[in-house]
Every structure is written in structure tokens, then in C-alpha cells.
Design goal:
Layout (H helix, E strand, L loop, with lengths): L1 E5 L9 E11 L2 E10 L13 E9 L1 E10 L5 E4 L11 E8 L11 E3 L20 H10 L1
Antiparallel strand pairs: 1-2, 2-3, 3-4, 5-6, 5-7, 7-8
Length: 144
């Protein structure tokens, strides 16, 4: 999973950065690893970035995965384990963390709201019409 976030640590801000969260298998251990790179703006492609500064966030005999959610017209959330080729960003992300030997869910109910609702086309250089209505969308997202 990759996303753009504010950079820097604490009160020292270094600009935006691309953050990657990957699940990696090393022998009998599974790791959730964070890597990052400077965000060079909308002309930059994620595929062209060199991610560095690996940090192991979780490690153990675990099953780790992500699910991505969209809110249907009736208000129900539909979950999917992949989010490729979609016209919009997922509304929610869920981190699944299970004990490999027992299958016990170690993080039940941990869902994270994505605070962006622009289409993928808005990330393209020269995109127009993506800012109109942003304030009302932000208010709706905050109210939810």
C-alpha cells in the first residue's frame, strides 16, 4: 500500500513524502515494513521513486493483510483485499492482524478512514476541476 503523507518527524516538517507499507515474509516471520521517499509532486510516478529508510512496524508469526472499503449507496461498507484500477480512492482501510497458529484476530475493528476523495485523475499533471467542492466534501467527511 502506498500513499502521500506529510513528511518529517514531530515539529520538523520536511515536505510531503510517499509512504509504502509492505507485508514481507522472512523465514517463519511476517513483517509489516514502512519505507518512504520524497514526494516530487503530481508529475512523479510512484513506480519511479526509490523508497528507503525501512522500519519494521510489526514482526512475528502473524498473518498480516489490508482490506479496502467503499461505502455503498445504502451505507453498507463493501470490503476488498485489492484496490487496483479503481476510479476513486478507498474510503476505509482495515489492517488485518491474525495469529498464524490460532487464527485469532489481534486487531478486531481497526478501520482507518481515508481523508481524501478526489478521483485518481486529479493526481495527473494539469488536472482541472478537482478543487471545486473540496470544502463541502471535507465538511461531509469530517461530519461522518
Amino acid at each position: 500500500m502506498m500513499f502521500v503523507a506529510g513528511g518529517g518527524n514531530g515539529s520538523i516538517r520536511e515536505g510531503e513524502e510517499v509512504v509504502s507499507l509492505t507485508v514481507e515474509q522472512v523465514d517463519e516471520l511476517t513483517r509489516l515494513v514502512r519505507r518512504r521517499a520524497a514526494w516530487l509532486g503530481p508529475r512523479a510516478r510512484f513506480e519511479d521513486l526509490t523508497l528507503s529508510d525501512p522500519v519494521i512496524l510489526l514482526e512475528g508469526k502473524l498473518l498480516i493483510s489490508f482490506d479496502f472499503g467503499r461505502v455503498a449507496a445504502d451505507g453498507a461498507v463493501a470490503w476488498s483485499d485489492a484496490w487496483k484500477g479503481q476510479a476513486t480512492l478507498p474510503r476505509l482501510v482495515r489492517l488485518n492482524l491474525r495469529d498464524r497458529s490460532t487464527g485469532a484476530d489481534l486487531l478486531a475493528g481497526n478501520e482507518f478512514v481515508i481523508r481524501a476523495d478526489a478521483s485518481a485523475d486529479c493526481a495527473q499533471y494539469g488536472a482541472s476541476g478537482c478543487v471545486a467542492g473540496s470544502a463541502s466534501r471535507a465538511r461531509r467527511a469530517h461530519d461522518e
